[in-house]
Amino acid sequence: MIEVEVKAKINSFEEIENKLETLGAEKSKTEFQEDIYFASPIVDFAQTDEALRIRTTDNDIFITYKGPKLNDKAKTRKEVEMSIESAAKAKDIFEEIGFREVRTVRKNRQYYTYENFEISLDDVEGLPPYMEIEIEMKDDADYTEAQGKIFELFEKLGITDGFERTSYMELLENLNSI
Predict the structure, then answer these.
(1) What is the pLDDT of residues 27-61, one digit of tens each?
(2) DSSP codes of every residue in 29-74
(3) What does each C-alpha distance from 83 to 14, 28, 64, 116 come to in angstroms?
(4) Of 80, 102, 75, which Cα lies nearest the Cα of 91?
(5) What is the pLDDT of residues 54-103, one digit of tens each?
(6) Fewest beta carbons within 10 Å, which of 8, 15, 100, 137?
(7) Phi/psi at 107 (nearest 5 deg)?
(8) Radius of gyration of the CA atoms of the chain, in A
(9) Is the separation of the CB atoms in 63 and 82 below 8 Å?
(10) pTM above 0.70, yes or no
(11) For the chain, what is the domain count?
(12) Would the CA dihedral through 177, 6, 16, 27 be positive or negative?
C-alpha cells in the first residue's frame, strides 16, 4: 500500500474542527497513540528515510514499516503494517536481533473522514498542533493526483503554509538538538 500524506502545523484545534464541520467532514474516532521507533543495526534509517515502529493505541497494537519518501512534495511512501498481540514482546524481539529503541512519540489523535480522505488532528506531546490529511492507494497507483487533491483540501480549510514532511519523531529530535 502507498500512503499519500501531507502534514501541516495549525494554529488551533478548535478553529480546524469548526472548518471541518462546516465542510461536512465526520469525526470518526479519538484515540491515544504511543509509537516506539527503532534504529536498525544494518541500515541507517535517517539516511534511507525509512522507519520501523511499534504503535499501541487504545484498542490495537501494530508493527509498521515505512519506506523512503517517493517524492519531495508530501510524505508519499510504501507502508506495511500488521497487528501483533504484545508491544513488549515485539520490542524484546527487535532488541534481541540488534534493533534499538530511538524515541517514543505519544499523541492524542482525532480522526475525521471526508470523501476518501482521512484527516487527523494531532496533539503530540512536546509539539504544537498539527493536522494530517491522508489517502491510501494501491502500490501501482499514480499518487500525483491524490497529492494535488490533498493540497486542495488544505486550501479549502484555509491552510496554505506550515507544511511539514518531517515525521513527529524527527521534529522532536530536532527540538532536542537545539
Answers:
(1) 999 999 999 999 999 999 989 999 999 999 999 99
(2) EEEEEEEEEEE-SSS-HHHHT-EEEEEEESS-EEEEEE---SSSSS
(3) 32, 21, 9, 23
(4) 102
(5) 999 999 999 999 998 877 667 788 899 999 999 999 999 999 999 999 99
(6) 100
(7) -155, 155
(8) 16
(9) yes
(10) yes
(11) 1
(12) negative
Round to whole Å and give the CA distance between 172 and 178: 10
Does the annotation count 37 as an active-site position? yes
Selected catalytic residue, list 37, 112, 143, 168: 37
Q: Are 165 and 147 in contact (CB under 8 A)?
A: no
Distance CA 34, CA 64 (A): 13
**CA atoms of 39 and 20, how far apart (whole Å):** 37
Q: What is the CATH number of the domain that holds 143?
A: 2.40.320.10
| Range of the structural domain that residue 29 is part of | 2-176
The answer to whether the beta carbons of residues 144 and 70 sit under 8 Å apart is: no
Show the cell assigned to 32.
491515544
From CA 97, how far away is CA 177, in angstroms rounded?
Answer: 28
Cβ 71 vs Cβ 53: under 8 Å: no
